[in-house]
Design a protein that fits this description.
The complex is a heterotrimer of chains A (333), B (180) and C (537). In chain A, 60% of the residues lie in helices and 0% in strands. Chain A has 333 residues and is mainly alpha-helical. Chain B is built from nine helices and no strands. Chains in contact: A-B, A-C, B-C. Chain A: One of its GO terms (biological process) is anaerobic electron transport chain.
Chain lengths: 333, 180, 537
Amino acid sequence: MAAFYSFLAVLALIVIPWLGVGMGMGALFGIVLPYIAIIIFMVGFTMRIVDWAKSPVPFCIPTTGGQQKSLPWIKNSPWDNPYDKKGVFMRMVLEVLCFRSLFRNTSVKLQQEGPKVGYSSEKSLWLFALIFHYCFLLILVRHLRFFMAPVPYPVHIAEFMDSILQIGLPVMYQSDVLILVGLGFLLARRVFDGKVRYISLMQDYFPLLLLLGIVVTGVWMRYVVKVDVIAVKELAMGIVTLHPHMPKAAIDPSVYAHLTLVCALFIYFPFSKLMHMGGVFLSPTRVVPNMSRRAMWVNPWNDPSIKPHSYAAYEDDFREKMIEAGLPVDKKA
Amino acid sequence: MLKLVDHLVLEQQAVLDAWFDLILGTYSENTAVLWKKRDDPFANPVRHRFEAGMRGIVVGLGTCGQTPDVATFGPYLDEIVRVRAIQDFTPSQATAFIFLLKKAVRETLWDKIVEHELYIELLALESAIDVLALFAMDIYCQCREKLAALRIDQIKKQYDRLLKRANLVCDLSAEGGEEK
Amino acid sequence: MAKYPPPEELIKINYTTPVKSWMDTKTAFKPGNFSYPGKPEILKYLGMPNPRVWSPTDDDWQLPPDWQRIVMEKFREKLKKYRSFKIFMDVCVRCGACADKCHFFIGGGDPKNMPVLRAELLRSIYRGEFSAAAKVLGKLAGARKLEEDVIKEWFLYFYQCTECRRCSLFCPYGIDTAEITMMARELLHEVGCNINWILEPAANCNRTGNHLGIQPHAYKDMMDFLCDDIEEITGKRIRPNVNKKGCEILFITPSGDIFADPGIYTYMGYLILFEHLGLDVTWSTYASEGGNFGLFTSDKMMKKLNAKMYAEAERLGAKWILGGECGHMWRVINQYMSTMNGPADFLETPVSPITGTKFDAAAGTKMLHIAEFTADLIKHGKLNLDPSRNDNFKTTFHDSCNPARGMGLFEEPRYVLKNVCRYFYEMPENTIREQTFCCGGGAGLNNEEFTETRLRGGLPRGNAVKYVRDRHGVNNLACVCAIDRATLPPLCDYWAPGVGVSGLHELVGNAIILDGEKKRTTDLRQNPLPGMEDEEE
């Protein structure tokens, strides 16, 4: 049900601009909406991050994934159990760039068992999540050519590498295929794996379908309709240079559908689980070194008025019995 | 000519798969998904224990003759019953999995049974499975008794030494046996 | 296929769980799946709200009249106080990586024991109350209203979490269910829903210094009793210092070890070790509990109970504190102690008086783990050891959750173990070290009424133990946690009969050769040593 509603929502986001542009509302979808989306995204994203960053981390609670640094002759794991900022930096690099925690699932093979085939499902989650995220990044970088003149060198490199197989005309980007594979897998998991379906909500299906919509309209534009790239770039440059205007040459409605979906993503982003992009950098179990035995970690709302049940009160309670048992006491009876 | 039990051993994998699916049907859907995974035995101990036990039972039925004995089947049944005994099942639910083997056998081997007219052997096999159900009941009870004993032990351990220290109980072991 | 009568015979068992959303599944309390609620007199002593006699199986839980407002107010307060809580409520993508990492889910299969769903129990209210969009979309967006059934659900499932943090290790964002469980339990406290096995020990720790409420003279008495046993075994009389001022070191260990099997043997191990070294150390009856039941209750209670350690060290004028084998105690010491009650400037960074090693790792809290201390001694050859005295044991090692994932204590106990035992075998690698499986009794669930569910959750650990038992003939499971020592014996008894449980320092105590001791014929449990079976008679 949740998946179906999400699908309808995405479909609407494609159909509305498609029809709207036909009715001469190109400027609304090509200029006004993108500005709104960018503003909401930037303000929303910043506010969420600031809100998180401002919340205190009262305690130093890293999840330690390896040997602590204790005695000099015991080898510690500086990245899985960092004791300083350098270690945390490496831990975060591994986490963010390699999805270290998702990769963690080791599986042991036993001699008495037969040969095993294929990835266990955890590893497949790691693999396809990694594929999706990297393709998404690559595609974002490639799109910079629409927003920059002259196009910077790294963007050219990204394009070149992405189309290195030289298949088809226009040349096919591998990332387009791979991102479909990645998204397809992530969606299929949600739909077909009973365990994951059970925990999935509308806000899990919607972004996946939204991204799929973006990729599919993008692929459609590039490989099927073969839209006028010059005109699209004119529109895009107009937006980034703050001189927005509609290009003279007509642009295929699929471009507006693509653009609207992207805007929807931008608007949706700050209010959704997609904020995990920012949240991972602030997660107290990961970005904090395991140092609270070594040095002081300060809790801003520490309440100094909380005192232990005092020894004096304890001794008052049990003094006679303590004396009888030969235990030393501070005050004589 | 092959007997029914020979077919059972030859096609044990198919029977086991069918049986396992039926047993998983007794759990909720998403739980079944987890336990179905052919994961390593330490990440997924339930499947591992069930598989080991079920295979032992099926192979055992192939060789046990007319009457199954506890010595052979006890350990295999234990693998499964011990788990189900603490999984929120009623006694009948916990031990009913054994009857599902009948269904698995009929579904998997029915063609063979019809082809070779093995009906009488089927009756014998099903009787043997009935016996296993009784064994399973015994094991179930042992497990529940164990559970009760563990709870009592825990309470005893908590206060045992305190009672001794308070000289509220007589400690015979410290005095030595009477017969000495 | 020809027709035949249904082979399932007469059983018409309706097993199939209806495929409906988890929000529509009602919580069922059955004997064995919940712990008994806090007694009113204990709640009153601790000054906690809504003391009353009630049972989870009641229809009416007698919540205070404006309980919704109370819970939501506390919810807001916690979100403001903890970034962890806010982020963990916000960033979960429900990828399912944690789903099959919880021992309760692996062994029992209740979907609400999947860490992600356990957190959703709270998240659904967070959305329903704090997010306008989710409020409109309702269940589709995983949002719901705070109703009495939700409180019941929280009570069941947040008291079926042992705060072991295994899921947190596998989460790509480090979402820590232990943190979420702690928050949820605090919300439940506000309306008087809590369990007695946490609160009564907490109250006892506060008043008497230990979780059973043993009074000081009785504590001393128990200690003498153990010294009697040591004298019987080794021929040497040990006279430990208790509450003595001016000693260099204050030693604090969980009180469970002073009177319950098999913890007492570990306790004897400590006594023998200190005697062997001639260590200038004192025990304390006021701070006789290392374990901190406040960790399972609230940050305030944790702080209050933990503060005794520093208070006692200051009163006695000790230079530093040595801590015994304990799980939660060490999470508190490593991650909370100095923040809550530090800095302890009246103490010094621990220096081993025997080897001169300065333990920089403990420079902040001034508190050293005994495994670190002993490993350093062995490394410097300061212990006179006869590991053959442990030849009756084929040992494996259980990493306790908190020293593992809240500290990273892996090599020190193993180094000690390998030096005091000759037969040591590891369990499979995805069940040890940082991936270790919980004993099922952490976070206050080590009570007798919860045994059935605990055994269910103990299956993954039990299964790994059984494996090394069958493969290597392992008959002893060593550990560095008092809760383990209470929980693992029944767990092993059920899942891997024939395997016993011991503390690390029990084995150390067996191996240490005291100066001038008599020829030992038995180990600390008074079982004959290898080759001494006949001399016992």
